[in-house]
């Protein structure tokens, strides 16, 4: 469902963009409240001047600078939301979702929750009939992921015609100690975003459907080698299908 055709409402998220040399480079995310003020390097803009306006309009700050106001996309939200752990970036999340072939209604497990970026994308991918189990060992990351998820959901419901599904269960626990919890769970896919994913593989494997995909998000090739060595030495029933690096290059096209 797309955004409502109506104007901004109090309680929803707004994204302000300031033009710099023909490119929209400065982005400020805020949750609209009648008494609040948006503060940017280009000046101040009271939220009451935004509420009631249609997205896509240019408004001027206290110093006369122009800001473009619109509703943020999910990838913009995760890049601008508060962070504890480093997030899985949208370009990488897109590749992971494609590799796992997630469908509406799927049951997916992720470790760890981090700041909640992957949880939000998985939530959208599995839909209202799906389920996401998100394990996190650190309490501060666990709490922040839940906060970011709830903030997006509550703002979405104000600015959109439908509800964002409440389909993510955040669990504060070490995945290596969760074997008993997963005995009655059947998973369509697993995504591991943790320092030692090899510790999680024996735990999640019994719950993963035959032919299901386990995607692992690692920062460097040394970690990949350690993971493959562990799979071989422990004779874990996993087949390494693909190892990829996702690159992203932005272009700036300007008149000569």
UniProtKB/TrEMBL annotation:
One of its GO terms (biological process) is tRNA methylation. Signal peptide: none annotated. Residues 10-64 form the TR61B FKBP-like domain. GO terms for cellular component: mitochondrion; tRNA (m1A) methyltransferase complex. Residues 78-253 form the tRNA (adenine(58)-N(1))-methyltransferase catalytic subunit TRM61 C-terminal domain. It catalyses: an adenosine in mRNA + S-adenosyl-L-methionine = an N(1)-methyladenosine in mRNA + S-adenosyl-L-homocysteine + H(+). The keyword tRNA processing applies. Keywords: Methyltransferase, S-adenosyl-L-methionine, Transferase, tRNA processing. InterPro entries: SAM-dependent_MTases_sf (IPR029063), TR61B_FKBP-like (IPR054151), TRM61_C (IPR049470), tRNA_MeTrfase_Gcd14 (IPR014816). Pfam families: GCD14, TR61B_FKBP-like. CDD domains: AdoMet_MTases. One of its GO terms (molecular function) is tRNA (adenine(58)-N1)-methyltransferase activity. Its EC number is 2.1.1.220. The keyword Transferase applies. It comes from the Eukaryota. This is tRNA (adenine(58)-N(1))-methyltransferase.
């Amino acid at each position: 469902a797309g955004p409502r055709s109506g104007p901004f409402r109090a309680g929803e998220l707004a994204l302000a963009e300031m033009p710099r040399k023909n490119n929209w480079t400065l982005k400020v995310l805020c949750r609209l409240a009648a008494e609040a003020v948006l503060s940017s390097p280009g000046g101040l803009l009271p939220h009451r001047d935004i509420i009631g306006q249609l997205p896509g309009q240019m408004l001027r700050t206290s110093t006369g600078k122009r800001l473009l106001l619109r509703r943020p996309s999910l990838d913009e939200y995760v890049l601008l939301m508060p962070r504890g752990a480093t997030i899985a970036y949208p370009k990488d999340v897109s590749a992971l979702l494609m590799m796992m072939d997630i469908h509406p209604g799927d049951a997916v497990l992720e470790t760890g929750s981090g700041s909640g970026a992957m949880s939000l994308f998985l939530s959208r991918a599995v839909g209202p009939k799906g389920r996401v189990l998100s394990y996190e060992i650190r309490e501060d990351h666990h709490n922040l992921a839940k906060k970011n998820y709830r903030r997006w959901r509550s703002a979405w419901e104000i600015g959109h015609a439908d509800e964002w599904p409440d389909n993510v269960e955040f669990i504060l626990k070490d995945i290596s100690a969760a074997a008993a919890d997963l005995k009655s769970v059947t998973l369509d896919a697993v995504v591991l975003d943790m320092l030692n994913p090899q510790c999680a593989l024996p735990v999640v494997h019994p719950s993963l459907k035959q032919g299901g995909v386990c995607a692992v998000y690692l920062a460097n090739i040394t970690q990949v080698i350690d993971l493959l060595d562990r799979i071989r030495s422990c004779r874990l029933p996993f087949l390494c299908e693909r190892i990829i690096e996702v690159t992203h290059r932005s272009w700036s096209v300007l008149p000569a």
